[in-house]
Amino acid sequence: MLSKALIIFVDIRGFTSWSGDADVHANVVEFVEGFDKILASEFQDYYRKPLGDGGMMIRKVKAGEYPVKIIEEVLDIIGRVEKAFDSLCSTFSDTHGVRTDLHLGWGITRGDVWSRRSGNTDDFVGKNINEAARLCGIARPRGVVIDSDEFRELPELQKLNFQRQVVDIHGFNTPINAWVTKEVANFINPMAYARENPLVFVSGVCLRRIEGLLEVLVMKRHLHREFFPGLLEVTTGGQLAKDETFKDGVIRHFRRQLALEVSVDEKLFSTYQFSNRDGELIPGVRYLCWYISGQPLLHNYDEFHWLSPSKFADVPAADFMPGVQKDVINLLGKIENDL
């Protein structure tokens, strides 16, 4: 039977590499079932088909439904799903002690679909099903892609989050006119992404004073870590987010990775650089930070220690990640009367 329908595909971004972690693999069904429950709760009036780490949602479009109202409803639902998904990731991370930094990609179109009976359930096929799946596939690294020929206008408030783009999708002879969120637009046009979001890393070395004596936080990396397994790590950090200050970036990474509250000494820092897998040179800024509160989480570490500067300097350099010990010793030397 041929029907006019709204078609939505969703997929978890980063799922394949994340689920390969041994700690994740043992509990991955729990996570996927949690995501499926979110979709079931929010898309109650839709035909819903789970697809591994994603899903397909379809509902028939009634005569007289305005496209702008349809997409407004969908974007509201997506907002709620995104919020619940973030909560699911945080809960899974806290429960199982593994970093769960995942996002969602969405593809949306509207058009004719064929419904058919498959066993005891209904199923849908057709060109527009394939289009929505392909649109979801290019919604990277996260975000939403909407066929703008089917949805020529977006609600005014939500329209601010989208840009018009012409996208090529695999298996289609002609490009598709689309609304895409900014993350997707930057991914499709990497030169614009590079201009707007230069890749910069920030990190911090955590210090504390106990009865006036200085101590440095040192963590030993899990043996199953892909890079530098079993070596000592002194810094906590990662990529700086767009419109984020160096200070706020360091504080965010300490909270997220170690559940620690720190203050950042913006006057005591050093610069560094490294190459990623693609050979791109990435600059970074490393700060000295002061412990405020919290107990270090061992999501990615086997153990942690607070070492005095002298004990820190006595540890063989080969036990640390390359180049870190020397740089931290130089930073510590900038603190008067502590060495």
Q: What do these coordinates show?
A:
Strand 4 (103-118) and strand 5 form a beta hairpin. Strands 1, 2, 3, 4, 5, 6, 7 and 8 form an eight-stranded mixed sheet that branches. Strands 9, 10, 11, 12, 13, 14 and 15 form a seven-stranded mixed sheet that branches. The longest helix is centred in the first third of the chain and has 30 residues, at 67-96. The chain is built from eleven helices and 15 strands. It is α+β, with helices and mostly antiparallel strands and 339 residues long.
Proportion of residues in β-strands? 35-45%
The counted number of beta strands is: 15
Molecular shape: elongated
Termini, distance in Å?
Answer: 79 Å
What summary fits the major beta sheet? 8 strands, mixed
Task: Give the SSE layout.
Layout: E1 2-13, H1 15-19, H2 22-25, H3 28-42, E2 47-51, E3 54-60, H4 67-96, E4 103-118, E5 121-125, H5 127-137, E6 143-147, H6 156-159, E7 162-167, E8 176-181, H7 182-188, H8 190-196, E9 201-210, E10 213-221, E11 232-233, E12 235-239, H9 246-258, E13 261-275, E14 281-293, E15 301-307, H10 309-314, H11 324-332
Helix pairs in contact: 3-4, 7-8
Keywords:
Nucleoside Triphosphate Pyrophosphohydrolase; alpha+beta; 11 helices; eight-stranded mixed beta sheet; 15 strands; 2 domains; Alpha-Beta Plaits; single chain
Could you give a quick summary of the protein structure above?
By secondary structure, the protein is an alpha+beta fold.
